[in-house]
Give the backbone structure.
Amino acid sequence: MSSSVVPRLRFAPSPTGYLHVGGARTALFNWLYVKKYGGQFLLRIEDTDKARSTDESTRAIFDGLTWLGLDWDEDVVYQGANLERHRADAERLLANGTAYRCFCTQAELAERRAAAEANKESFKYDRRCDRLDPAEIARRVAAGMPYTVRFRVPEGTTSWDDLVHGEIAFPNKDIEDFIILRTDATPIYNMAVVSDDIAMRITLVMRGDDHISNTPKQIMLYRALGAELPQFAHLPMIHGLDGKKLSKRHGATAVGDYQHLGILPGAMLNFLALLGWSPGNDVEVMALDQMVELFSPDGLQKKAAIFDPKKLEWMNGQHLSLIGAAELLDRVVPALVRAGLSTEAEIAGRRDWMLALLDLLKVRARTIDDIVRQATPFFSEDIAYDADAEAKQWKDRPATAELLGSVKETLALLPAWEPAAMEEALRALAERLGFGDKAGKIFQPLRVALTGLGVSPGIFEVLTMLGRERSLARIDQAVAHLAAPARS
RNA sequence: GGCGGUAUCGUCUAGGGGACUAGGACACGGCCCUCUCAAGGCUGGAACACGGGUUCGAAUCCCGUUACCGCUACCA
């Protein structure tokens, strides 16, 4: 490839489902390549299978890529809109003698295939229609006999230097004369892809390695069409925890699933990038711009990788602390609103408080959903006392009520609502009550009183974020709850 | 079956002839920190699929075997 050529890469999904994590990763590597070396990243929707393609899937692909931040250049290309050109290209091959008409019917073909299988022989089209004499062909065409167009596979070997695998070679004798145009004159996949990739002036075809065996056929088509060959890079597949190709039964496989699970797009991208690529040192957690900087096709893996949701979660936790509070806020607010905990206006009204709260919560959260869960007691006065927390920290209910009463008294006396003073006063109280330096005996029951939960940020941070009024009210509320007859 | 691809801890990977008693990360266990949970720090167990070559020397190169994956449609 001459260095003067501007790289043009494309991501070409079929809109037959949702944007799969494997597809997203393919898109990511294409995108990274373009961002790293310059060039254009194009999107082509391969919607020629009308039976399976849906507009909804197309939208899911756009939404998924947009959420991930993988923006594409130029207008989206819809393969279905190029049928005429595909056909014209196939007919050019017929005209230049590299393809021929085949009058064999599907039924005949199926029969011969079955017969070959019965004899334990591998079936390959025997080229009988290529031996028809021209007069006979003309007669059949004139008679309106239906035909497909087959590509005549030449002698020799077809090979290419794959960007991730190196040299790959296929003996042409193993490839049959494949159909490029159906009886109804619509193109077969390989024909459509090559026609489009040429028209889009694609210089590097980077796709899943399930296309490796399509590649020699496509290369022959390029040559027969007199087009310049692009480079090829075949990326490994993604498998599920059981080592099988990732599919629905492995749980969430659509990018949108992770979006709704509270995963950050940056974390998703980072995780996906590491599945099949490594920067070569021990760097793992990267922001998108770092990935671009570090990206190189040399680091691309040949081996299929297994999708491990545990590591994705960990990665998300890392990105939660990596991104700024402001950016995180943009992601959390919609989730908070959706959970019915607050409104955008309310949050905007106390943005600084919200930012401070986020800083406290994000350390112990792995997903945005975790944050929402933990944020609940800071938004809702309707405290739901966690049964386990009550059982553990409020064992002796009357004694706890009394303890909380003392805590409230102590806190109420504080001249300033300030952490150092709280801690000093509460530790002194622990001392007085005979807990010695085991101030946790106060902190823990108090945590349950304030949040209803056994887990929260540091107790003084909780008190601070809640403020004096709400904190004291919460203690009263807890004391009342403790006095009420237990209704488990 | 034919053809093609792949093969380092359970998982993601570093490694591209000597620096390897094979490094990092996730997960798992222990310890520290500590008001809970996280985070963080320290730490433990855990791998070169097998067999032949080549070489003074192989996780690294070559050849077989095995296993897994993909393709083998008038699907994409």
Observations:
- The mean pLDDT of chain A is 93.
- Chain A is about 50% helix and 10% strand.
- The radius of gyration of chain A is 32 Å.
- The first strand of chain A starts at residue 8 and ends at 11.
